[in-house]
Design brief:
Blueprint lengths: L1 H30 L6 H18 L4 H17 L5 H4 L16 E3 L2 E3 L1 H23 L1 H11 L1 H6 L4 H23 L10 H15 L4 H22 L4 H15 L14
Antiparallel strand pairs: 1-2
Helix pairs in contact: 1-5, 1-6, 1-8, 1-9, 1-10, 2-3, 2-8, 2-9, 3-8, 5-6, 5-10, 9-10, 9-11, 10-11
């Protein structure tokens, strides 16, 4: 029972890591850079959604939509004012799908714990299709392969890079909004989550959307199992140790491939 409960909570947490890691994937794929503001972007999404939904009293869908729009703007013009406007104290976010639980294999599961993996996998699939099957997605990938050639083909390279940072921040905002009801909302909530998400991005193979999402699920489940079976004191040490061991065996990530460079 304990293991099953840890698996379910680990999938929800891992999906959140995967969403954050998808943001790292987007900016790396387009600009060969890593957006280390993902953690603060996640915090911003949670704080803005809380402000609009709880403080102002808007419907959750409207609060989430405006929060994500502002996260996209934040991804282009990074300016952190949350500490001075929101404050340091943690705050609880209401459960959007109700406080009740569903029984799965005799275990009480909150609907949100099922919604997070569903949303994460759906966004990973949409991102994969967008980047591989659409002209705009192909144009964005062309920027990192050869910016000069992309520019000659009429692609606005600075705009493409800005768009990548905006989209990556939206993914972080989605993660923040989804995870906010399960954790307290506060100004530095994204620090640890951001570090773990970066580890997940490297573990999955940062150039693979599906890879980072699956790595997030694996990371979350392993973290939850370690916490349930050994205690929270071992969680950070063992999970990051396992990540280091995995990268020692697979330097390009579990689902990544070595980059082929033409000379």
């Amino acid at each position: 029972m304990l293991v099953a409960s840890a698996l379910i909570s680990g999938l929800a947490l891992g999906s959140m890591y995967g969403l954050l890691a998808l943001g790292f994937y987007i900016t790396y794929s387009v600009s060969s850079t890593v957006n280390f503001s993902q953690g603060s972007s996640m915090m911003l999404g949670a704080v803005l959604a809380y402000t609009f939904a709880v403080t102002v009293g808007w419907p959750l869908w409207a609060a989430a939509a405006l929060a994500l729009a502002l996260c996209a703007l934040y991804g282009i013009v990074v300016d952190n004012l949350v500490l001075f406007t929101f404050g340091k104290e943690p705050r609880g976010f209401p459960m959007p799908l109700g406080t009740g639980s569903m029984q799965i294999l005799g275990i009480g599961v909150a609907p949100l714990q099922l919604a997070i993996p569903a949303a994460g996998l759906a966004l990973a699939g949409a991102l994969h299709v967008f980047s591989r099957r659409t002209r705009l997605g192909s144009a964005l990938l062309a920027v990192v392969q050869n910016p000069d050639a992309a520019r000659l083909m009429g692609i606005n390279v600075p705009l493409a890079i800005s768009a990548a940072f905006a989209v990556s921040t939206v993914f972080a905002g989605v993660a923040g909004i989804l995870i906010a009801p399960l954790f307290n909302v506060h100004s530095d909530m994204g620090t640890v989550f951001g570090l773990k998400a970066f580890a997940v991005a490297i573990l999955g193979g940062i150039a693979s959307a599906w890879g980072v999402m699956l790595a997030g699920l694996i990371f979350g489940v392993v973290e939850a199992l370690i916490t349930a079976l050994l205690g929270s004191g071992y969680t950070q040490i063992l999970t990051f140790a396992l990540v280091i061991a995995a990268l020692a065996l697979r330097p390009n990530g579990l689902f990544g491939r070595a980059e082929v460079k033409k000379v």
